[in-house]
Design brief:
Helix content: 25-40%
CATH architecture: 2-Layer Sandwich
CATH superfamily: Bira Bifunctional Protein, Domain 2
Number of strands: 11
Keywords: ATP-binding, Elongation factor, Ligase, Nucleotide-binding, Protein biosynthesis
Number of domains: 1
Strand content: 15-25%
Structural class: alpha+beta
Distance between the termini: 15 Å
Subunit structure: Homodimer.
Largest sheet: 8 strands, mixed
Radius of gyration: 20 Å
GO biological process, one term: lysyl-tRNA aminoacylation
Enzyme class: ligase
CATH topology: BirA Bifunctional Protein, domain 2
CATH class: Alpha Beta
Strand order of the largest sheet: 1-5-6-11-10-9-8-7
Pfam families: tRNA-synt_2
Length: 327
């Protein structure tokens, strides 16, 4: 076995700056009337997403039989538990917590990372985007975020309408720009192609002068956002981009439990088609939504990438002390 380096990958100066940013974020939310919560890292439930893979844990209640236990998951975000708190009466909450995503390693990824996540009752899409812009401005000091719709972005950069484009048209667009389409993509995988074109051709150009918030994602990419009442082709989902990085993902939250169950089924079918295990579809969040989740907006912001943007780091290793491979 190769000898591991005991030293942190991040400089002490960057770690001190990280501390300052964390305290600034906490002070921002407290000043806005939010209160800080803590939710479990381990849960029987997890977000059911085609591309997000939680770290599974076999939790044994008998130390003498560690191989006999119950399946839990390290959370990909605190979303489920925080929404359960909102359904129980918490009106404005935030937390700064660890999250885990299997096999995510790279210049902007680590299996274990830190999220800032918040929810506020009464906020809609526009209030949610405004709050995210305010958070970014408070930390980055680059002015308010530019707001651009998903459709407008694709039309401006690639002269195509993402809401009506076919898979064939998107494949031709990828070929025109020299983007290789993975063999794993299905013949009609419009969403996969849109995500590929966004990641390869558009995202690297976003958010360099001022932060950019992209909103009104296609309905098929709604995740846990509700669909727009004025245009059901789009979802009330928004993301923040800074220096070519995606920093945050937020929703005007889906309130209908039965729609969530149906989306879970669809996502599990897609996971199984990719050879991935299905994830629990009927969760405590579904039960909370059936009991009544009030209208609210929520958002998850990656603290590690936020620090990267502030200090000008090129790799997440520069802003966390011990990446997974050196932990």
């Amino acid at each position: 076995m190769a000898k591991r380096d005991w030293r942190p990958t991040a400089s002490i100066d960057n770690l001190k700056r990280r501390h300052e940013i964390t305290q600034a974020v906490r002070a921002f939310f407290l000043a806005q009337g939010f209160w800080e919560v803590e939710t479990p890292l381990l849960s029987r439930d997890t977000v059911v997403d085609t591309h997000l893979d939680p770290v599974p844990v076999l939790l044994s209640w008998n130390p003498a039989k560690p191989s006999e236990g119950e399946r839990y998951y390290l959370q990909t975000s605190p979303e489920f538990a925080m929404k359960r708190l909102v359904a129980a009466g918490a009106e404005a909450i935030f937390q700064i917590t660890k999250a885990f995503r299997l096999a995510e390693v790279g210049s902007q990824h680590n299996v274990e990372f830190t999220l800032i996540e918040w929810y506020r009752v009464g906020d809609n899409l526009h209030a949610g985007m405004q709050l995210l812009s305010d958070v970014a401005e408070a930390v980055l000091k680059r002015g308010p975020a530019d707001l651009v719709s998903y459709s407008e972005l694709f039309q401006n950069h690639l002269s195509t309408d993402p809401l009506s484009a076919t898979a064939e048209q998107l494949r031709a667009l990828a070929q025109l720009h020299g983007v290789s389409v993975p063999e794993s993509f299905g013949s009609d995988d419009v969403d996969g192609l849109l995500e590929l074109l966004l990641a390869e051709l558009i995202q690297p150009k976003l958010g360099f002068d001022r932060p950019l918030i992209l909103y009104h994602y296609p309905a098929s990419q709604a995740a846990l956002a509700r669909l727009d009442e004025a245009d059901a082709r789009v979802a009330c989902r928004f993301e923040l981009f800074v220096d070519g990085m995606e920093l945050a993902n937020g929703y005007d939250e889906l309130l209908d439990a039965e729609i969530l169950v149906e989306r879970n089924r669809t996502n599990n079918a897609a996971r199984q088609a990719l050879g991935k295990p299905p994830l629990p579809e009927d969760s405590q969040l579904v039960a909370a939504m059936r009991a009544g989740l009030p209208a609210c907006s929520g958002c998850a912001l990656g603290l590690d990438r936020l620090v990267m943007a502030v200090v000008g780091a090129k790799s997440i290793d520069e802003v966390i002390p011990f990446p997974t491979r050196q932990a």
